[in-house]
């Protein structure tokens, strides 16, 4: 519910919404001029009554428009981010002092610096290396989606660079779609269906990104509150829960004393078929 709370704070409802309690359907109907098809007004927009085949065709065309819009805006945003990364990489390859400066001032470090105050408030750690690594991971999620950050988080956890508590908090902080690519999906897909509201959708997309980022950080704070230092929360077996190794099987030779068997005065072997 963190996103709902923040959304109500950022965009409060100052009046009764039009869709409160249901979709308002106006009772008056109009008739189309071309084919005399009765139409209804739903939320101020005319909705024509179509056959199932017409509805399927219209849905397919809307789906194509939505997919193309999402792909176009997604390529645009990720391309711009990659272009900026390439620019920083080219500047880092120059001679000193410019090259040495941009080897430190990278896009990941800039985003980590922006998220440093918020990362401190999540309660990750007060140890500077661990705090900085966590801040860079959360900042990279904004530009590169959560997949590279999760991959790097797993490596840092295996190397022992960050503690299990930091892994827990950062994992919750990364668990969301609060990144630039998500804005492209939302704006591109919705604006393709409602081109007349493209400006409003674009403004709302950046607000949604801001709310989503704060929402994931709030959830990570709650996860840190309930962290009691139990290692089993990350899948690590608890102390004493590991079964002791089984002893290797041993072979014991048992010998029996067998009394000799005589038939009359003749000694008979135990392997004899007569026994």
Describe the protein in words:
The chain has a domain at 60-227. Helices cover 56% and strands 8% of the residues. It has helices at 2-10, 52-92, 98-104, 107-114, 116-121, 128-144, 146-159, 164-174, 180-193, 198-225, and strands at residues 25-31, 38-42, 45-48, 261-263, 266-268. The strands form 2 sheets. The protein has a 3-stranded antiparallel beta sheet, with no helix packed on it. The chain has a two-stranded antiparallel ribbon with strand order 4-5. The longest helix has 41 residues, at 52-92. The chain starts with a helix and ends in a 7-residue tail after the last strand.
Shape: extended
Largest sheet: 3 strands, antiparallel
Which whole number gives the mean pLDDT? 78
Report the span from N to C terminus: 86 Å
Supply the helix-strand structural class: mainly alpha
Total DSSP E strands: 5
Strands of the biggest beta sheet: in what spatial order?
A: 1-2-3
Count of helical regions: 10
β-sheet strand percentage: 5-15%
pLDDT < 50 stretches = none
Q: What's the SSE pattern?
A: HEEEHHHHHHHHHEE
Rg over CA atoms:
34 Å
Binned, the helix content reads 55-70%
Write the layout of secondary structure elements.
Layout: H1 2-10, E1 25-31, E2 38-42, E3 45-48, H2 52-92, H3 98-104, H4 107-114, H5 116-121, H6 128-144, H7 146-159, H8 164-174, H9 180-193, H10 198-225, E4 261-263, E5 266-268
Antiparallel strand pairs: 1-2, 2-3, 4-5
Helix pairs in contact: 1-10, 2-3, 2-9, 4-6, 6-7, 6-8, 7-8, 8-10, 9-10
């Amino acid at each position: 519910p963190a996103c709902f709370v923040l959304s109500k704070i950022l965009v409060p409802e100052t009046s009764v919404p039009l869709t409160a309690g249901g979709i308002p359907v106006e009772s008056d109907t109009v008739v189309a001029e071309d084919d005399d098809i009765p139409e209804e007004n739903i939320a101020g927009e005319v909705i024509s009554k179509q056959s199932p085949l017409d509805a399927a065709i219209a849905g397919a065309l809307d789906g194509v428009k939505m997919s193309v819009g999402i792909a176009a805006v997604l390529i645009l945003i990720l391309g711009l981010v990659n272009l900026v990364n390439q620019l920083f990489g080219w500047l880092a390859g120059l001679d000193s002092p410019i090259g040495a400066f941009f080897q430190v001032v990278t896009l990941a470090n800039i985003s980590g610096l922006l998220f440093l105050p918020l990362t401190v408030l999540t309660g990750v750690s007060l140890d500077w290396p661990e705090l900085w690594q966590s801040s860079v991971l959360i900042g990279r999620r904004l530009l590169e989606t959560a997949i590279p950050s999760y991959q790097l988080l797993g490596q840092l956890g295996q190397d022992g660079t960050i503690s299990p508590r930091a892994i827990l908090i950062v994992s919750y902080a990364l668990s969301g779609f609060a990144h630039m690519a998500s804005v492209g999906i939302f704006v591109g897909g919705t604006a393709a269906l409602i081109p007349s509201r493209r400006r409003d959708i674009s403004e709302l997309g950046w607000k949604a990104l801001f709310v989503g980022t704060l929402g994931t950080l709030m959830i990570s704070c709650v996860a840190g509150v309930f962290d009691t230092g139990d290692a089993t929360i990350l899948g690590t077996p608890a102390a004493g829960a590991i079964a002791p190794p089984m002893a290797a099987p041993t072979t014991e030779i048992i010998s029996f004393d067998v009394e000799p068997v005589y038939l009359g005065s003749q000694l008979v072997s135990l392997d004899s078929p007569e026994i």
